[in-house]
Design a protein that fits this description.
Rossmann fold; 5-stranded parallel β-sheet; 9 helices; 10 strands; 48% helix; binds cytidine-5'-diphosphate
């Protein structure tokens, strides 16, 4: 059967990566978490002190972007690919609230976006890919056969992210997680370069009141229809 490209965009913590992983497994497609790439650049900037408490050394980061190599390696135990920065597995490090608190400002930098979008487009050259992010259906794969736009209320999303962080053993409060979710939503939707917006041909899915199973079944049906159309 002909393979298609599936683009999943939406606000933070809308469960994009959960459904993207389920779909990739179901279809035998590659799954790429584009947010992990922006988080990896943020981690790099923190390690090199290009990010300090109240100051970003943007020009220094831009001139050092050539030193960044991001790759994904499938971990069979986890069932998905983990992100590597210059050969080092940084999957755990990039999921902290601290990285989340800086990532949207790093993602506003056009030079960063240009570098990552090129790599993302290369990964999708042969189709058979599910990618999630903020600009996948609008900028990275504007011709994707299936585009989904995921939404849920800010409180629902913050609750999900708070539980994930607590489960990891991170010491965070619900209030700061909610603040992070809301502030990233704002920056991501208002930036000049590739703001988060629903592509005209994307299908909106509000999963505030959907179980994971209901959500997967609904999306699986959409995929089946697209696969038939592109047969
Ligand atoms: O998983 P979560 O919803 O927390 O976010 P993520 O997918 O890990 O993305 C982290 C951040 O990277 C977002 O808040 C955006 O600022 C940025 N991002 C982006 O600008 N473009 C993408 N395609 C993916 C992520």
């Amino acid at each position: 059967m002909k393979q298609i490209t599936i683009a999943i965009d939406g606000f933070s913590s809308t469960g994009k990566s959960t459904v993207a992983k389920q779909l990739a497994k179901h279809l035998g497609y590659i799954y790429v978490d584009s947010g992990a790439m922006y988080r990896a650049v943020t981690w790099f900037a923190m390690q090199h002190h290009f990010i300090e408490k109240d100051h970003f050394h943007i020009q220094d980061l831009i001139s050092n972007l050539h030193k960044i190599t991001i790759s994904f390696k499938f971990n069979p135990e986890l069932g998905f690919a983990e992100v590597y920065l210059n050969g080092k597995n940084i999957e755990q490090q990039i999921r902290t609230l601290e990285v989340s608190s800086f990532v949207s400002q790093i993602a506003e930098i056009s030079e960063v976006r240009e570098l990552l979008v090129k790599q993302q487009q290369k990964m999708g050259e042969c189709k058979g890919i599910v990618m999630d992010g903020r600009d996948i259906g609008t900028v990275v794969f504007p011709n994707a056969e299936l585009k989904l736009f995921m939404t849920a209320s800010a409180e629902t999303r913050a609750k999900r992210r708070y539980n994930e962080l607590i489960e990891r053993g991170d010491n965070v409060s619900f209030k700061e997680v909610l603040h992070n979710v809301q502030s990233r939503d704002y920056i991501d939707s208002h930036r000049e370069d590739s703001p988060l917006t629903k592509a005209n041909d994307a299908i909106e899915i509000d999963n505030s009141n959907m179980s994971l199973e209901q959500q997967f079944n609904k999306i699986r049906q959409l995929v089946e229809t697209k696969l038939q159309e592109n047969h």
